[in-house]
Design a protein that fits this description.
- There is one protein chain.
- It is built from six helices and five strands, in the order βααβαβααββα.
- The protein is α/β, with parallel strands linked by helices.
- The chain has a single domain, classed as Rossmann fold.
- Strands 2-1-3-4-5 form a five-stranded parallel β-sheet, sandwiched between helices.
- The protein is globular and about 40 Å long.
- Bound molecules: 1,3,4-trihydroxy-5-OXO-cyclohexanecarboxylic acid.
- The site of 1,3,4-trihydroxy-5-OXO-cyclohexanecarboxylic acid has 10 residues, from loops.
């Protein structure tokens, strides 16, 4: 079984970007932890990051080649109907994650356009959002296998 992990805009800056919200781990650190967690579950993983909405949507389309998608859409979670539509086209389990607790932040971040298109959302646990996201995704993948 194979998982695709997609990180949205500005997440390439993790480590230095607003650590009070996002923690101090870099994106490479998070990918390493996610890869180890996937290894623990016996699933393979490919991690990618895109700043642009179009490339991120293309990558969502390509994730159909795998068995599950873990996505942190970044700010596109709050703004992109096109990304939500792309997620809705997938027939594989999808978990959305956010490092920060978006519900405890400014009101613009309370609107979650992509959330309606995914199986579940994990938000506010910093890097652990991703690791719990892997656990949830693997359990959904096993259920639908
Ligand atoms: C984020 C939350 C979004 O509101 C923000 O725009 C991000 C990161 C998170 O992981 O907490 O870029 O998705």
């Amino acid at each position: 079984m194979k998982i695709t992990v997609l990180h949205g805009p500005n997440l390439n800056l993790l480590g230095t970007r607003q650590p009070e919200y996002y923690g101090t781990l870099s994106l490479a650190d998070i990918d390493e932890k996610v890869t180890a967690r996937c290894g623990h579950h016996g699933v393979s993983v490919a991690c990618h990051q895109y700043n642009g909405e179009g490339p991120l949507i293309d990558a969502v389309h390509q994730s159909i080649e795998g068995d599950g998608l873990l996505i942190n859409p970044g700010a596109y979670a709050h703004t992109s109907l096109a990304l939500a539509d792309a997620l809705e086209c997938l027939q594989i389990p999808i978990i959305e994650v956010h490092l920060s607790n978006v519900h405890a932040r400014d009101a613009m971040r309370h609107k979650m356009l992509t959330a309606r298109a995914v199986s579940g959302v994990i938000t506010g646990l910093k890097a652990n959002s991703y690791l719990l996201g892997v656990d949830a995704l693997v359990s959904l993948m096993k259920r639908s296998a």
